[in-house]
Structures are given as C-alpha cells and as structure tokens.
Amino acid sequence: MAWDEWEQLKSEAAGQRSTRMQLNQYPADQGGDGTQGDLVAGHQDLEAVGKAAHDLFEDFTTFSGHARVASEAAAGGLKGEGFALGGALEHVTEHWSKQTKTLLDACAHISNHLRFTKNQHAADDSYISGSVSSIALLDEGFDDRKGH
User: Fold this and answer.
1) C-alpha dihedral over 17, 18, 20, 26, to 10 degrees?
2) Cα–Cα distance between 111 and 4 in angstroms, integer?
3) Residues 119, 123, 126, 132, Cα dihedral to 10°
4) Which of 18, 91, 106, 115 has the least CB density, counted as fewest CB within 10 Å?
5) Residue 38 CA from chain centroid, whole number
6) Taking Cα atoms as reference points, which of 56, 91, 98 lies closest to residue 71?
7) Nearest to 85, CA basis, from 70, 71, 75
8) In a structure prediction context, what are the per-residue pLDDT tens digits for the chain, which is 148 residues long?
9) Contact, 82 vs 25, CB < 8 A?
10) Whole-prediction pTM value?
C-alpha cells in the first residue's frame, strides 16, 4: 500500500465517523421480565477458542516433533559428510525447537486460562446464589418476628 493510498483511506474513515465516544452495551429491549439472567460461563465462542487452542497444541506437538527429528537427522548427516549446511540446519532446528515451545506454551496458556475462567465463573455464580438465598432466608425470619 502506497503512502498516498494510506492517507486517502485515513481521511475517508475520518469523514465517515465523528470523533465521539461510543460505549458498547447490552441492548435495552430484550423482552421477558426485564431481568439480566444468570452468569453464564459456557459461551460457545469461548469454548471454540479453547478447543482450537487445545487442538493446535495437540497437533502441533505431534507434527513439529516429526519436523524436528527429521531436521536433526538431516543436520547430523550433512555435518558428518563435512557440509557446512549441516551446521546451519542444526542452528535452524534449535531455533525451531525454541519457537515451538513458545507456541505450545501460548496454546496451553489460552486453553488453561479459559478453563480456569469457566470454573471461576461457576464458583462465583454459586457464591452469589448462596448469598442471595441467605438474604431471602434472613428476610423471612424478620417477617416471622413481626407476625406477618
């Protein structure tokens, strides 16, 4: 993209949108009795992200392992025959292994964080439900003492 094209796109975007703050929010008219509902942690989109991260972790572990083993064997063979390319391939393989570990750690972190978040939300929902139930029980006790 050329600089002039970038500047044109920026000016078009600025002309389409005024500089004001816009807050994203839950739509006001949702029907029903007006309550927001229970805290739900099992959103399909989050579950899909977690599954994709887990699947990538599993598949990449397998396939990157094959690539690493084949590259190490090729590097060893080339070095054994006196080719300088063997050392270079060995260097690339070492970096490949480091980058693989970084990607796998990121995938595991995403998957684990989403699982933790789901469990934490379920625990929060249970706590809130218990607290609200306790308040209702206390209210009943006060009502009974007043003779209602």
Assistant:
1) -40
2) 42
3) -140
4) 18
5) 22
6) 91
7) 75
8) 677 887 887 787 777 765 555 555 655 555 555 555 555 545 677 778 888 888 888 999 999 999 999 999 999 999 999 999 999 999 999 999 999 999 899 888 888 888 888 778 778 877 877 776 666 666 676 666 665 5
9) no
10) 0.49
114 C-beta neighbours (distance < 10 Å), count: 20
The DSSP element (H or E) to which 70 belongs, if any, is helix 44-80
**Residue spans per domain, the chain:** 42-145
> What token pair was written down for 33?
């009795």
Structure tokens at 77: 């063979």
Closest listed residue to residue 119, CA positions, set 11, 14, 46: 46
| CA gap 63, 95 in Å, rounded | 16
Q: Look up tokens 């064997």; give the residue.
A: 73
- Say which amino acid occupies 29: D
